[in-house]
Every structure is written in structure tokens, then in C-alpha cells.
Amino acid sequence: MTRPKTLSDESVLKIAYQLIHEHGPEALTFARLAKACGLSPATLVQRFENMAGLKQNTLLYAWDRLDEKTAKLAAIVPKTAEGAVELLIALSKDYGGIESYAEGLLVLREDLRDPTLRARGAAWKVILSNALEDCFSGVPNTPPEIGLLMASQWQGSLLWWSFDPQEKVERFVEDSLNRFVRAIIASGSAQS
Questions:
Q1: Gene3D superfamilies attached here (predicted)?
Q2: What band does 1 get if pLDDT is binned at 50, 70 and 90?
Q3: pLDDT tens digits for range 68-107
Q4: Where are the domains of the chain?
Q5: How far is CA 141 from CA 80, 98, 177, 186, in A?
């Protein structure tokens, strides 16, 4: 097979992310990426300098995709409590089965180790929380920061699902979030 003469950084990072997602962060090496994308290891070193640079750029690429997906979903879901649940279910589909989710936790470990990547996570928290908050704008008596509360419930439901993944993650998340929304709405009604 002849090597491609050019391949965009974005294309290389997409392949690098697939390697991380399928085999874990430790699987990303210049040699393995070179084999997967068809560029020489030397070319990859020229582009990304070292493994830390390659890993960081790969995970920043993943954060960019998540930001895009979140914005797209936020623009199309109904601005209702049900729309908030719909948005989070759609984001949950990326987790796949338990093996994929477990690999994702290894990727999260890499994000937590790097201040630049942690900052991206913090920024996404704000983006997601605001999108969820918008969905509740017409629901009377919702508590302050309902978006962050719901995002936290979502992340917790993913973790609880992972300990006993007997059903599809989307179904578990949907049930958990619907119970949360009912409790929030009932609590708001009781206060008025």
C-alpha cells in the first residue's frame, strides 16, 4: 500500500481518537497511528512533536466534536423538560456498551491529568448546563441551576448503569432522568 502524501491534521486526529476509543489511551503510539493513517512516524512527530502533544491534540479534537454535537442537539430539541431528557439521551448513545464506557473512563482520566483538557471539560459543563437550563425556561418554579443539577443527575445515572449494565444505557438514562424531572416538577408545584 502506498502512503498518502498528505492527510489533514483533522483526519489524523480522527484516526488517533478512534484508536484511543477502541483500545484505550495507552494504545496511541506514533507507530500504531502511522500504521492506521498511512503517514510515517517521522511525519507524525513533525506535526505533533511528542506523545503528550499528540494525545492532547487528539482529545481536543474529541472535545470539539462534543461541543458541536451538544450545540446541534440544543438547537433542535424542544425547549421543554422532555427536550432536556432527549438531549441527554442523545449524548448517552455515544457511550455504547459497558466496554466502550469503561474505555471512555480511561480517556476521562487523560482529560483530568491535563489542565488544558480540564478547562475544556469545565467549559463544556457550562455549555451543557445552559442548554439544559434553556429547556426548563417555560417550566414554573424550577430550582436555580436546574441545568447543572440535571447534568449531574445524568452523569450519576451513567455511573450507576455501569455497575449493572443489564439494559441499554439510553433506556437506563431515560428512566433515571424522567424520575428526576418528575421530582423537580412535583417539588416546584408543592412550593407554589
A1: Tetracycline Repressor, domain 2
A2: very low
A3: 999 999 999 999 999 999 999 999 988 878 888 888 888 8
A4: 9-191
A5: 14, 37, 18, 10
